[in-house]
Amino acid sequence: MSVEGKVKLPPLREVIATHGLQASKALGQNFLLDEQLLDRIAAVPGTIDGQPAFEVGPGPGGLTRAILRAGAKLVAVERDRRCLPALAELDAAFPGQLRILSGDAMEIDARAEAGDGAHIIANLPYNVGTALLIGWLSAPWEPLPWWSTLTLMFQMEVAERIVAQPGTDHYGRLAILSQWRSDARIAMKVHRSAFTPPPKVMSAVVHLTPRPAPDGVQLKHLERLTAAAFGQRRKMLRQSLKGLPGALDALAEIGIDPQRRAETVSVEEFVAVARVLGR
């Protein structure tokens, strides 16, 4: 249980000033300082009291505080060594709950560090956010992935690509990778003015909950199929898929009109074609 009530934490703006933590553009940093908003983000996964959690890019520790207040046992990875003294100060307020790793999240084995069942909660650095998401979505499903939920802050455009539906401009490979074995939704929108410094675009928190993968489908077949289909998204499937062996026959078997374009094909239809390709 946190003893934050006994160890008074200074306001985040004071922490930033004390440690000289100007947000680094090179690291894609934008700090969130509104503690009520941060508590709302930490509440998106539901009850996490006593459960493992994993955070990328905590910066001065705003979201870190909120996750710890919710009772999680947190592993946080920070690449910016300037932030480490500020994060270390949280140990006094939350003894035994926090472990800080100094390093690059792209190179760290999150499963080994955080443990199975971890809730991944992060205001992701803009420059690596999508790559980290794809890595977590590409984890083995046995029948579920090692992580329990993903609660992630993205630029609005990326968030819309994750949750996009067929027939929309944002629908593409990222939507299919996110949705073929997960439920994805935008949990809240966050105005640019909430950040220090304010980014040029709006942001949103996306929440993903995994579910068992459809039977008989392998990620590699779905990836090849969607890469071909969306590589030329404005062309008909009969043109974009002609270079993928067996794809046009699979369309015929499933009953998908080859004159359709990739952006009109549902996640379930792509999954059905990938299942045929994998036989």
Automatic annotation (TrEMBL):
Its main location: cytoplasm. The keyword Transferase applies. Its EC number is 2.1.1.182. CDD domains: AdoMet_MTases. It catalyses: adenosine(1518)/adenosine(1519) in 16S rRNA + 4 S-adenosyl-L-methionine = N(6)-dimethyladenosine(1518)/N(6)-dimethyladenosine(1519) in 16S rRNA + 4 S-adenosyl-L-homocysteine + 4 H(+). Keywords: Cytoplasm, Methyltransferase, RNA-binding, rRNA processing, S-adenosyl-L-methionine, Transferase. S-adenosyl-L-methionine binds at N30, L32, G57, E78, D104, N123. GO terms for cellular component: cytosol. This is Ribosomal RNA small subunit methyltransferase A. It comes from Sphingobium indicum BiD32. The gene is rsmA.
